[in-house]
Amino acid sequence: MTRFDLQLRHPTGETTISVGDGALGEGDAALETWVRQRRVFVISSAALLELHSQSLLTLSRQAAYWHLLEVPDGEDAKSIAIAERLWGEMLEAGAKRDSRIVAFGGGTVGDLAGFVAGCFMRGLEYVQLPTTLLAQVDAAIGGKTAVNLTQAKNSVGLFNHPWRVVADTRLLKTLPPAELRSGLMEVLKMAVISDAELFSVLERDLEGLLAGDPGTLAPVVAAAARAKIDIVERDPTERDERMLLNLGHTLGHALEAGLEYRSLRHGEAVGYGILFAVQLAERRGLPVEAAERIRRLVERFELPRMPALEVEPLIRLISRDKKVSEGGWRWVLPVDVGACEISTDLTETAIRRELTAYLEQLGTIS
Ligand SMILES: NC(=O)c1ccc[n+]([C@@H]2O[C@H](COP(=O)([O-])OP(=O)(O)OC[C@H]3O[C@@H](n4cnc5c(N)ncnc54)[C@H](O)[C@@H]3O)[C@@H](O)[C@H]2O)c1
After folding, report:
1. What is the pTM of this model?
2. Distance 55 CA to ligand 1 centre (A)
3. SS3 per residue for 51-108
4. CATH, domain range 247-362
5. Please, what CATH class does the domain formed by 3-193 belong to?
6. Is residue 321 lining ligand 1, measured as CB closer than 6 Å?
7. Over 60: is that where the pLDDT of 326 sits?
8. Are 160 and 123 in contact (CB under 8 A)?
9. How far is the CA of 79 from the centre of ligand 1 (A)?
């Protein structure tokens, strides 16, 4: 097995991020020492444990006490009510300040587990064992944790880096193809932001990657993780450069919300968001060849057709999005393949005009 061990230095220490085809199943000495003789609380969903609990077997044997904390599948896990239930269950099971928390699941489980770990007794160490591609390349890296309020997603949370991340690409074999495709869009995003070489790999290997081969995926997951680590190290608390990671997300989030999280997956909405960013960027000098390369690669993802949408509700959703800071609208725009900038001078009027043209061109304006 080829294994990639990456380091993320952050304000509270250092996190090793290991990526590999079989990285978890074949045992991990550091992780085994970390759980040895401890009470370990594993946060996961029933569906996932049914598929992959075998991967945790070696680790579970090292713990003094191995307690499963089951959470609902998907976004329903990320609530204060679920966090409170888990804190209660942990107290009843005798959790101490040096107990351990293991997040085993996609980004929803990881975001919740990091939040639960960060608040319980003012902070327990935890590890991320991400099981979706999106979580392996993005959500598990960088210490952002959160739960949702009914008013807004991810509105309550904290920066809390895991002690360790182990991303086993073999776990991705059971991922539904649409989830894999959605996660690969985040890889494409990372490539457009800062890694032209990764972009070329995607151009070359997209079909193999979409087929979910763990060996083909491992170096690509590692490269995307490396690209995210570099940005997070330079801006750990998202004050400036880390906002680059929002490429495609300002419109993407508005599309998801405008369609009530039903018609487009996150990665698909981000795909449409990237295409819009390319349109905006072209007006500001993005070379035509670069714009065309990005467009062609996004098109190879065969995004589902976007249902008809009105411009004004989208503009309102964009305004509400937290990426619109007190200082004004911020848009992440490519300046080349592998390089982006944060633009602060695009007015609401300009965005309204561009968005109208964009939706008209897609034939999805209502
Ligand atoms: N913290 C961050 O920096 C950050 C970054 C990006 C996204 N996020 C968050 O991540 C969440 C989305 O994460 P996600 O896309 O992983 O979604 P998810 O956690 O809901 O997982 C998607 C689905 O895949 C299933 N699944 C997970 N692993 C599987 C496997 N190996 N085989 C088969 N099925 C599997 C899950 O049960 C779920 O139904 C959002 O809540 C988002 O806000 C956080």
Report:
1. 0.96
2. 18
3. HHHHHHHHHHHHECEEEEEECCCHHHHCCHHHHHHHHHHHHHCCCCCCCEEEEEECHH
4. 1.20.1090.10
5. alpha beta
6. no
7. no
8. yes
9. 15
